[in-house]
Task: inverse folding
């Protein structure tokens, strides 16, 4: 005979699975399978990225009178800052947001509901999500610092450094942080737009479709978090972005609301931009601020707090769903 503690754990896990299954039931489902939707979204994402780049190139020629071949050389030139921001926005929207919504439309008669846009979060869920992402940033930062301390082979370090310099160059060409008004624009371009588009694609799209297909929570969260981190093409930042992906994936899986993911992702990005702004105001360049390798392992101490907050989020979601008759 099982002891009461084990019985209670089994019962709680059964309720958790039941809630997840009910949350992912779609009465508006179309005949296309979720597995097909997962791979369709990847294909649409690649096609959307190409289309967004071409469309942005056309806008570039209209705005500047220069050829598309001049885009690369204009990167980082302050004279073309606004044009580069427009190009980045088009690429992000057509590479992530549009493909996710289009794929969801193939799977459901209510694509926005399928992704999670119609799932309104409660006030306590909002507070817990903010707490999770703020404490999770400590964990993510510590993992980033850990990566810099690893005894990597020299060739790997050279490869990682090349990635970091390329990424820093791209960001430098997209933002200017000389005054508060430029900070606001930078937050919109590098924090809000990516938060909306990437969360719709990765959590509302890929993870959502994968979980509905295999019903395996951890497999879906981990696989999509790996893809999420790899897409950002940062060797030193891989572990920290993977951890962030896990946090964002669990927030989505526990609540079904894409709005909470957008909020959490926005907070993460906005804080990074604000930190860059403070360092630029202190005399650093944007590139130097981005390549700062300082940090510590203390952020790992936040792991128990993150776990506790997730348990509270699960409990609140469970209470809400059961109250709604799930």
Result:
């Amino acid at each position: 005979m099982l002891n009461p503690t084990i019985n209670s754990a089994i019962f709680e896990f059964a309720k958790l699975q039941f809630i997840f299954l009910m949350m992912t039931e779609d009465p508006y489902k179309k005949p296309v399978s979720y597995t097909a939707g997962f791979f369709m979204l990847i294909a649409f994402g690649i096609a959307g990225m190409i289309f967004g780049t071409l469309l942005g190139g056309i806008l570039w020629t209209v705005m500047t009178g220069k050829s598309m071949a001049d885009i690369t050389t204009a990167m980082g030139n302050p004279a073309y800052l606004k044009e580069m921001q427009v190009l980045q926005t088009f690429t992000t929207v057509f590479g992530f947001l549009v493909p996710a919504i289009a794929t969801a439309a193939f799977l459901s008669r209510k694509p926005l509901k399928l992704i999670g846009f119609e799932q309104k979060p409660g006030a306590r869920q909002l507070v817990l999500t903010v707490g999770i992402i703020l404490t999770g940033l400590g964990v993510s930062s510590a993992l980033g610092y850990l990566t810099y301390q690893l005894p990597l082979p020299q060739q790997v370090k050279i490869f990682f450094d090349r990635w970091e310099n390329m990424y820093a160059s791209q960001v430098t060409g997209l933002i200017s942080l000389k005054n508060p008004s430029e900070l606001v624009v930078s937050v919109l371009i590098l924090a809000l737009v990516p938060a909306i588009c990437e969360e719709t694609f990765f959590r509302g799209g890929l993870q959502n479709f994968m979980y509905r297909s295999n019903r395996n929570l951890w497999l879906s969260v981990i696989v999509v978090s790996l893809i999420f981190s790899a897409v950002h093409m940062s060797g030193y930042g891989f572990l920290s972005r993977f951890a962030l992906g896990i946090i964002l994936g669990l927030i989505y899986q526990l609540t079904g609301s894409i709005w909470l993911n957008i909020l959490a992702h926005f907070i993460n990005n906005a804080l990074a931009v604000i930190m860059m702004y403070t360092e630029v105001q202190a005399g650093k360049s944007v590139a130097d601020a981005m390549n700062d390798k300082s940090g510590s392992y203390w952020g790992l101490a936040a792991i128990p707090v993150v776990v506790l907050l997730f348990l509270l989020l699960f409990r609140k979601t469970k209470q809400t769903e059961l109250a709604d008759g799930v």
Summary: DSSP finds 13 helices and no strands in the chain. Residues 25 and 107 are 12 Å apart (CA to CA).
